[in-house]
Design brief:
The complex is a heterodimer of chains A (about 375) and B (about 300). Chain A is about 70% helix and about 5% strand. By secondary structure, chain A is mostly helical. Chain A has a two-stranded antiparallel sheet. In chain A, helix 3 packs across helix 4, helix 8 (about 210-230) packs antiparallel against helix 13 and helix 9 packs across helix 11 (about 255-280). The longest helix of chain A is centred in the middle third of the chain and has 30 residues, at about 120-150. Classes of the chains: A mainly alpha (about 375), B mainly alpha (about 300). At the A-B interface, helix 7, helix 12 and helix 14 of A face helix 5, helix 11 and helix 13 of B.
Chain lengths: ~375, ~300
């Protein structure tokens, strides 16, 4: 292209591909997976544990029995939902990380609604709680969109700040504020237990897997239809690819941004709702922590597609649920799994770039 | 409220402010260089966390806090290499690579920490003590606030004019600013854009690592998960609020630090206000500052846009 490329002739170098090649793409992602597994093994060795024992404990704990598999499905439920929230927003290239706060908002809004209507049979309560959770998440999502479109506040920074604010709000509400469990000390940071009428019913005789998993799969199906089959889905994808072209087409990009963020917020909020009413049955801060951030990793590893996200959530939900068993039997800390997710996301990012290049040996054009 | 006006408490609040601003200031002043070079580094939080963990690990295993300080800088440098590889070489989107870095480091530091303390009580260390400057520390009011601080706090404050000089009075600084505004000019003259971006990212990340190290060595004697608690993000907000200028960035960092110092003092004094409200103030103020700017920020023209020749 210029003098510098002449100087650099006759050596191994990368050249941009004109079209993608499936074989090369698979190769780069294969290398990424292999490299991630290798690094993860290195981390296990670092802990002084036997890697074979640790990995088999991890897999056995996650997928080794019917109970392990239903536990895995329960563990994957919030991750599917926060992953889908990420898919919808990131396909439109809205790089926000508000999912974490939206999870909290969903759980809090549903809890507030439950206090407001008081005792009621489950099938009356369920739609109200779901609606409340969705509205809580939508509110935060809409706020992000307005901050971006009206005040030009970068969405990553805005959502980081809002995440801290929402977590602090809950910390006050259940740690000294009006929602604190009566009779418990402030230190516990929890609300009173929910009445059993509000619990999401368990499925398949499991004591962990609950109705939330079905809701998550329905949400995945809805996202698939949304992205593939609707005009809005087209706009979302176009907004990611070329927002200027989209606005020339006559689409109001600000409105699309608002809608996308509200959908994303609603999905993440469902994760908070299903975790609080399906698993912990009370509001606590620590049990909701991290689902938003893990959802980002899951969605990126799942290639920002709804079904890819479901698969990634099931795999990593399994590993997270197996991590407890690994910790007990092989003494490897459970934080291995989020680390592995981070490594995979990084190597996938690099693989995504390399897939667009080819290795060339020789003089340049 | 009378207590607040008491001069001992006033001194304590402002001296505390200088101490809590140190880690954010190191990160903000360092990343200012990175951002002026056109790199929107969103991995500040993760880099800072890595610096803090490394400092803790080295301080508790060798017993030397000076070695720990150097190790924190080196850890920042390693993070910088990773960020530079992603953004300057591979041209991955700056936002998404920063996110990946933060998520990875949050998991990795926790994992290493758990391995490190496995089966024993968490080791502690003796952190930095104050270095009272002769004469100056005896000045009334100003002395105990400004001149009886940790050594690294003085260094952080001095880094502001240092970076100002670097940016506006040296050839190196001119090149950095050109990277953020119009990298093609450098490229056409035969200067490597990528190499200079590596330099700017390394400088910013090493400063951020040092900030993380101070967070450990200047405050605490034990590591906690997510100990940075958003300080890396506050550093980024301070740069935006400071409109990418060193002294204004210092001003923004001062505001955040004052709020944080007030929060800890209110907690101790117990004014009957929920302490979460005060903890929330830096984040609330950040949002309002960013809203007030309305995008009118004088940001470098090529910030966050990968350079392709």
């Amino acid at each position: 292209m210029s003098t510098t490329s002449l100087e650099r002739s006759r050596r191994l170098r990368f050249e941009r591909r004109l079209s993608s090649s499936i074989g090369w793409t698979l190769t780069t992602y294969g290398v990424a997976v292999a490299l991630s597994l290798l690094l993860t093994l290195g981390l296990i060795v670092m802990s002084g544990a036997d890697p074979i024992k640790a990995v088999s404990a991890l897999l056995k704990g996650g997928f080794g029995s019917v109970k392990a598999i239903t536990d895995t499905m329960a563990r994957a439920t919030p991750l599917i939902l926060t992953g889908l929230a990420t898919v919808v927003a990131y396909r439109a290239q809205i790089w926000n990380i508000g999912q974490e706060g939206q999870v909290y908002a969903g759980a809090m809004a549903a809890f507030g609604a439950m206090l407001w209507i008081g005792a009621a049979p489950f099938w009356v309560l369920l739609p109200v709680l779901v609606m409340a959770a969705i509205m809580g998440g939508m509110l935060l999502g809409a706020l992000t969109a307005v901050l971006k479109s009206r005040f030009s506040v970068n969405e990553i920074i805005a959502t980081v700040m809002m995440n801290y604010l929402v977590v602090l709000l809950l910390s006050w509400l259940i740690g000294g504020g009006p929602w604190t469990e009566v009779g418990a000390t402030v230190v516990y940071q929890q609300s009173a237990a929910f009445p059993e009428d509000s619990w999401l019913p368990y499925l398949l005789g499991s004591k962990k897997l609950h109705l939330g998993f079905v809701l998550a799969l329905m949400a995945a199906f809805a996202c698939h239809i949304l992205l593939k089959r609707t005009a809005l889905g087209y706009e979302i994808r176009a907004m990611g690819a070329n927002p200027v072209a989209l606005s020339y087409r006559g689409t109001n990009v600000k409105t699309t941004l608002l809608i996308v963020m509200m959908i994303s917020g609603a999905l993440a909020a469902m994760a908070g709702f299903s975790e609080a009413f399906g698993n912990t049955h009370r509001l606590r801060s620590d049990t909701l922590m991290g689902f938003g951030y893990t959802g980002i990793l899951i969605a990126m590893i799942g290639g920002l597609t709804p079904w890819g996200t479901v698969v990634a959530a099931l795999i990593f939900g399994g590993l997270e649920s197996g991590a407890l068993y690994m910790k007990l039997t092989a003494k490897v800390p459970g934080a291995l799994v989020p680390t592995m997710e981070g490594i995979l996301m990084l190597t996938f990012l690099c693989a995504g770039v390399l897939a667009r290049y080819r290795l060339v040996w020789g003089t340049s054009k | 409220m009378n207590q607040l006006l008491d001069s001992a408490i006033l001194i304590s609040i402002f001296a505390g402010m200088l101490r809590v601003m140190t880690p954010i200031l190191f990160a903000a002043i360092g990343e200012l260089i990175t951002q002026r070079a056109g790199i929107w580094n969103m991995g500040v939080e993760g880099t800072m966390l890595m610096g803090a963990f490394t400092a803790y690990f080295v301080a508790t295993s060798t017993g030397s806090i000076w070695l720990a300080t150097l190790a924190a800088i080196a850890a920042g440098g390693v993070m910088g290499l990773l960020i530079a590889l992603l953004t300057a070489s591979l041209k991955v989107d700056h936002f998404i690579s920063g996110l990946a870095i933060n998520l990875l480091i949050a998991g990795l530091t926790l994992y290493w920490f758990r391995i490190y303390i496995e089966g024993r009580p968490q080791p502690t260390f003796q952190g930095f003590t104050n270095l009272a400057l002769p004469w100056l520390s005896e000045l009334p009011l100003l002395g105990p606030i400004l001149f009886n601080q940790r050594f690294l706090t003085y260094l952080a404050l001095l880094s502001v004019p240092g970076v100002w000089f670097l940016l506006y009075r040296t050839r190196w600084g001119l090149e950095i600013r050109a990277l953020g505004e119009n990298p093609r000019v450098l490229d056409l003259r035969g200067h490597s854009v990528t190499a200079r971006q590596y330099g700017a990212i390394l400088f910013g990340s090493m400063m951020t690592g040092l900030g993380g190290g101070f967070l450990m060595l200047g405050f605490s004697d034990r590591f906690l998960a997510d100990i940075t608690a958003g300080r890396g993000w506050l550093a980024i907000v301070a740069i935006i609020a400071g409109r990418w200028r060193p002294y204004r960035t210092l001003g923004a960092v001062t505001v955040f630090a004052l709020l944080e110092s007030l929060a800890t003092h209110v907690q101790v004094l117990g004014l009957g206000v929920p302490h979460q409200l005060f903890l929330a103030l830096p984040y609330l103020v950040s949002l309002f500052i960013l809203m007030g700017l309305r995008g009118n920020t004088h940001q470098p023209a090529r910030l966050g846009l990968p350079y392709f020749r």
